[in-house]
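User: Show me an example of a complex going from sequences to structure tokens.

Assistant: Sure. Here are the input components:
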Amino acid sequence: EAGVAQSPRYKIIEKRQSVAFWCNPISGHATLYWYQQILGQGPKLLIQFQNNGVVDDSQLPKDRFSAERLKGVDSTLKIQPAKLEDSAVYLCASSLGGTGVFNEQFFGPGTRLTVL
Amino acid sequence: GDSVTQMEGPVTLSEEACLTINCTYTATGYPSLFWYVQYPGEGLQLLLKATKADDKGSNKGFEATYRKETTSFHLEKGSVQVSDSAVYFCALSDLRGAQKLVFGQGTRLTINP
């Protein structure tokens, strides 16, 4: 079974530029998560989708970050304009979804963003 | 809000040594607790979990017991191997809700032969 795919794996941009990340979840997984992992810290949830609807985006900096999940499958996360503090690894995860029972989240390899 | 605190790292041990990585949490409700591992060059993987108080999660020789009275979920292994070198993350999630994971800051473990 194919895992969660992310691209690109690495990206270097200047501050104030725009960048986009792509995620393809495991087939059949209804729930998709984007996490931000700053060096030396644990991952922090940015946004969670259930199919193509947003479940939680309370920690997404909406003035510069946006995300969408068209047709409830692939997802893109965009930063416009980027700031130095956005340098981090952006992780995508997916799970079968649902509440009340444990649904394991499977993580992609991440995209490492460096903002200069 | 919910939070997880892990012991300060990095941790360096010799092969076959005993390992304990401390983890404590603060949460409302009844969270489930997890340990994730990130091997060099790989993505995060679930190592073990416990969904209620007094449950013991185990996998690959690692164990952790959900202690509600001390709000702890310490990771232990009796004899570590070089292949255990990785970054370990303690995390919690509320299975009744959206199941987002709240992670600790991670502990880098290096095992020397």
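The lines above are the inputs; the final block is the predicted structure for all two components together. Chain A touches chain B through 29 residues (CB under 8 Å).
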